[in-house]
Amino acid sequence: MAFPPLVEPLAELSDPERTRTARHRVLAGFGDLAQRRLAAAHVAVVGAGGLGSPAVLALAAAGVGTLTVIDDDLVEASNLQRQVMHRVGDVGAAKVGSAVRIAADLSPTTVVRPVQAVLTPVNARELLSGAHVVIDGTDTFETREAVAAACEDLGVPLVWGVVQEFHAQATVFWSAPPAGTVPVRLADLYPPDAGREAPSCAQVGVLGALCLQVGALLATEAIKLITGVGEPLLGRVLVIDALRGRTDEVPLRPAAVRSPDASAGAPAPAPAVASGTPGVSVGSPRAAENTRPERVPQLTPGEALAAQRAGAVLLDVREPFETARGVIPGAVLLPLGDVLAEPRRVEASRVVVVCQVGMRAQRAAAALRAAGVDASVLAGGMDAWNRDAADADRAAVRA
């Protein structure tokens, strides 16, 4: 259902702004009034990366009056594939600086307040205070929890999204929604600490175009809340599978009001596992607790080496540019996509699957086990293998 608008409108738009936003102002049910609400609105965007970048672009273009953009990072060349607010010339500069420039280019009336700082549980409430809506596009679950806790304390709606690999989720959390509406919080979708072990996008990748799609979706949710137009995603999770071109919607109910046998109504595990984005497992929300697949055996580096010596095949499913940096001696190289496309091409009765941190290996091993192969995973992947080797070298030096 539609909610009352969050923002009182400006008395009047300037003539240039009326011209610039003309296509909004002729929208049925939106019009000049909603546009004036946007002009009076203050949105805080936490994270100027894969989700924050398109959200800032969309909100500035929409005519939002004030944007507080919070990010402590500098632009890196590897950001440019998905963080569309930044340019090659921005590499090495503060990400929040891109927000100032791009908003001025799109909407001269939009004021950007850049905050180059790490948002923490200590400063989150202060940084977000005064915003009508908060958009979370951050890349660690610790930060997401801090943002959510501050929004719950302030009673401000939190527009939330996560993207990793080819999958995404988006929803709205709000601890103090309009009367007659049940509050929904981050903990209703992800239990505390649920995403702490999830890999980053640097480790498993993310489709850049999907970041644009989800960032624009988050901006749309903020616009709906500000103007009172449309039905926000509060109590609903939008689940996007870019590979299949499929979007699903599932209900999200507060954990406290569920019956003991009811699932949360959140998505079932996605085939893949944060940047926004890194840091959040897209496929492991609270709702999936009763639908988890068979657990694949996890081996330590020592156990994996023993299995190889006993005849098991070490199957490295990383991409060629990754394996070029080093592999376990004797490992068979076959990228994950090839394994998933045809698991039976792996001609071995016992396999230990290896990737960089373990998540891709988990997917490959599950596919191989479904095809009748005794597959396990090197827990922690090459990162764990390299740490183990480093520890062994240090022990040898001490000896």
TrEMBL record:
InterPro entries associated with the record: Rhodanese-like_dom (IPR001763), Rhodanese-like_dom_sf (IPR036873), ThiF/MoeB/HesA (IPR045886), ThiF_NAD_FAD-bd (IPR000594), Ubiquitin-activating_enz (IPR035985)
Coiled coil: none
Keywords: Nucleotidyltransferase, Transferase
Domain of life: Bacteria
Region Disordered, annotated ranges: 257-302
SUPFAM superfamilies linked: Activating enzymes of the ubiquitin-like proteins (SSF69572)
Compositional bias of kind Low complexity: 259-279
UniProt domain Rhodanese: residue ranges: 308-394
Single Gene Ontology MF annotation: nucleotidyltransferase activity
Protein's name in the database: Adenylyltransferase/sulfurtransferase MoeZ
